[in-house]
Design a protein that fits this description.
Number of helices: 0
Strand content: over 45%
Distance between the termini: 40 Å
Helix content: under 10%
Order of helices and strands: EEEEEEEEEEE
Radius of gyration: 13 Å
Structural class: mainly beta
Length: 124
Amino acid sequence: QVQLVESGGGLVQAGDSLRLSCAASGRSLSTYSMGWFRQSPGKEREFVAAISGGVGSTYYADSVKGRFTISRDNAKNTVYLQMIRLKPEDTAVYYCAADYYPSDHKDSHAYDYWGQGTQVTVSS
């Protein structure tokens, strides 16, 4: 069984930066694809970024391209989401997800394992 724990969220001002972490336990996730999704009140969960297992191909939502960077440290079994130039519309609960071979890296339904989420609030 895989457990994912997110951390690093908080309250920041527009233009600030944050780095989210997702620590995995239960098994090595070096060959797993990892994704970050977010959900705001009243909205559906949306894709933010993903990184594949193996070669580490990365995928980003258009809304975060150039501002967010996903990376992984397999030795620490941890995935990161570096966020810069944050905007109020980035406010959401951010979730980490993992799957060995998601059919679609951008589809939340393709991931089997989820963390509990971490709140990111960006004030204007």
